[in-house]
Amino acid sequence: MLKKVVIVGGGTAGWMTAAYLRAAFGERISVTVVESKRIKTIGVGEATFSTVRHFFSYLGLPENVWMPRCNATYKLGIRFENWRRKGHYFYHPFERLRKVDGFPITDWWLDRRTGDRFDQDVFLMAAICDAERSPRHLDGTLFEQEFKERGDSEAERSTLAEQDTQFPYAYQFDASLLAEFLTEYATERGARHIEDDVVEVAQDERGFISAVRTREHGDVEGDLFVDCTGFRGLLINQTLDVPFQSFQDMLPNDSAVALRVPVDMEQRGLRPCTTATAQDAGWIWTIPLFGRVGTGYVYASDYTTPEEAERTLREFAGPGAEGLEANHIKMRVGRSRSSWVKNCVAIGLSSGFVEPLESTGIFFIQQGIEELVKHFPDESWDPGVQASYNRTVADAIDGVREFLVLHYRCAARADNDYWRDAKKRVLPDGLAERLEIWKSRTPTAENIYPHYHGFEAYSYHAMLLGLGGLELRPPAALRLMDGAGAEREFQMLRDQSKELVSRLPSQYEYLAQMH
């Protein structure tokens, strides 16, 4: 078996990988992280989605251990503002749809139109987010008792494959602090940390990477090399010449500018969600952490300039942004044609990235790590194992691309060239056909993107109903059916929402107690 893993690059991707490999394999392999202190990490990917709980579960880390260290907050979904029209908002929550007489509650909503806000009528999370409530009671119990929590012992470790129920929340955290926390976790468990610059990558006669040559520590040899060098793709793209496949023709947002705004959260309140507010050339994220807000404008450079984008963001952030340094980021949107070539596996931004609209950056890291453990090679370097890994990773990235393209194609907003052009761009293979199907048959597991990409049919329902740019028709069968069961379910949702809002503590109150 292979014994030496060298991870080139630190940050969130590098240290998530190191920590997970130590948790999975213990002392049976060596793990070395080579990290340059001169290369600044991006460190703005602060929101996740609910599958990230499996990562912390696998490492045996309960919330009260890692969340305070990372200024973490709860995220029950994403609040989309101004995507349909200015002043309109809706939630895409982590909540599966209820069914009545074999039909999802959204179909009944389309038929009955019980209110103006579909998300309030069919989900519990909308009311909880509006009221800024915590998903946990002060005694730590989870409000969603249908979900059975796993323990933190190694015997109960779980991965993405065990996501059989929908966990009701994800996390928002300071990515730089998480990297620091995982550095401690991994090095305390035997990972070696080399802070140095890679000046050369050595290859053997097969083209395999044999060592990375560092400025002060000489050659760092390994059997398997993990490229966590971000958009540079130092190993996978620059050394092994793996082509990068751009998604720019479908997703034109290629830049971002970010601010970290200190805020008194006790006074402001902590809404338990990420907010994505549509703008003239993209959208602005708002991520409330414990003590500050992370905010940034993701935009297409064809439609605005970095200077104008920064002015827009500062105006949006308000007086608290005055004097703060803005971080400008050029994004490489797309994926490497293969994430595993020879003895190099790319994880994180070097593997692939789509814009952060649905907080999928850390999901891609987590999936890449889990699949690496499941596909971990031996000295035979079985090409079938590599092909399986590459197919699984590529399918997930391509599926998220399709889901994000849907956001722009189906947004009703069309008040300038940016939003009008979004309706004309090329679509991923199969999406045009699916859009036609969804007009009369709302998304199901059978008619959405067919490979695992982290999103279920309920996410498509939430976005199509919220964005408002695709006319959806309820099933004709509902006109022939007794809707009494649906009316009871709608009333039950209203009652449960009111009860939870009245009983749950505010998110600030719960997290202040944790701190």
Can you tell me about this structure?
The model is unreliable at 151-155 (pLDDT under 50). The chain has helices at 11-25, 53-58, 63-66, 105-112, 118-122, 125-130, 175-188, 234-239, 265-268, 306-317, 361-374, 383-409, 417-421, 431-440, 457-467, 484-503, 507-514; strands at residues 4-8, 30-35, 73-75, 77-81, 89-93, 99-100, 103-104, 170-172, 192-195, 198-203, 209-214, 218-221, 224-227, 244-246, 255-262, 274-279, 282-288, 292-299, 327-330, 334-336, 340-341, 344-346, 352-353. It has 17 helices and 23 strands. It is of the alpha+beta class and 515 residues long. β21 and β22 (344-346) form a beta hairpin. α11 (361-374) packs antiparallel against α12 (383-409). Strands 5-4-16-17-18-15-19 form a seven-stranded mixed β-sheet. Strands 9-2-1-13-22-21 form a six-stranded mixed β-sheet. The longest helix has 27 residues, at 383-409.
